[in-house]
Design brief:
222 residues; mainly beta; binds 2-acetamido-2-deoxy-beta-D-glucopyranose; signal; DUF4360; DUF4360 domain-containing protein
Length: 222
């Protein structure tokens, strides 16, 4: 599954990398292969007749080869309303716990790029929210978190890209405390039509790639 997601991810976000300006100084990053994803656990606490979640095995999480980014692909994540929405529901929610190891290194999320496909008719609103944070071994939220959110109003039909900066730690000590923490990211999409005949969908992009997020990482040696 890794290589499959890796190919999707590199295709999906290649244009972002090529558009990024050359960094002023060479960023400090762990050598390729040092940070590893040990476990990806997903849960969908809000699943009901109005909402759907994500299932184990449908979320791909991977570090970029040069460790500049962490990418998440939600392979089976979509919300839909209206006559042609089939089995889709108006809300989709997915929460991902990522356990990783990066001996001697820790990171902050310096920015996030969210990407999906959105097609909503006039009168339909699509709300997209993603949040991330770190949770320590005792289950307590740590400092440093972030979110990206947007409400789109129909008519809208396009691949949708959203960029947002993260919250950087103030000291080496504070970023290094995250080295052994669990990283958690949630994604939710809600469609609100003003009448039941209006259609809308939020899903993977028009190239049929899953909904994706690319987190740009800022590393520290600990
Ligand atoms: C994810 O982490 C939260 C907070 O520690 C926990 O409540 C939840 O059960 C975890 N979910 C999975 C699927 O492990
Ligand atoms: C990633 O972050 C670095 C510095 O933190 C910045 O120079 C670069 O433009 C960012 N890249 C993207 C794709 O946001």
């Amino acid at each position: 599954m890794r290589p499959f997601f890796a190919i999707l991810l590199s295709a999906l976000f290649a244009f972002i990398a090529s558009a990024a300006p050359a960094p002023a100084a060479t960023p400090v990053r762990p050598p390729s292969g040092t940070p590893k994803i040990n476990k990806v656990a997903v849960d969908d606490p809000d699943v009901d007749t109005e909402g759907s979640g994500c299932r184990a095995g449908t979320v791909g999480v991977a570090f970029a080869t040069d460790n500049s980014a962490l990418t998440l692909i939600f392979d089976d994540f979509a919300a839909g309303v209206g006559p042609n929405s089939g089995t889709l529901r108006k809300r989709a929610f997915c929460r991902v716990n990522v356990t990783m190891s990066s001996p001697g290194w820790a990171f902050d999320v310096s920015s996030v790029d969210f990407r999906s496909y959105v097609k909503i008719a006039k009168g339909v609103e699509a709300s997209i929210v993603s949040r991330w944070k770190w949770i320590d071994g005792k289950g307590v939220d740590m400092k440093g978190k972030g979110n990206v959110k947007k409400v789109l109003t129909g008519p809208f039909e396009d691949d949708f890209l959203l960029h947002k900066d993260g919250e950087l730690s103030d000291s080496d000590q504070s970023v290094c405390s995250k080295a052994s923490a669990m990283f958690q990211l949630s994604l939710s999409v809600t469609l609100t039509p003003s009448s039941s005949s209006q259609s809308g969908i939020v899903a993977g992009d028009s190239a049929d790639v899953g909904v994706g997020e690319l987190l740009n990482l800022s590393w520290r040696k600990c």
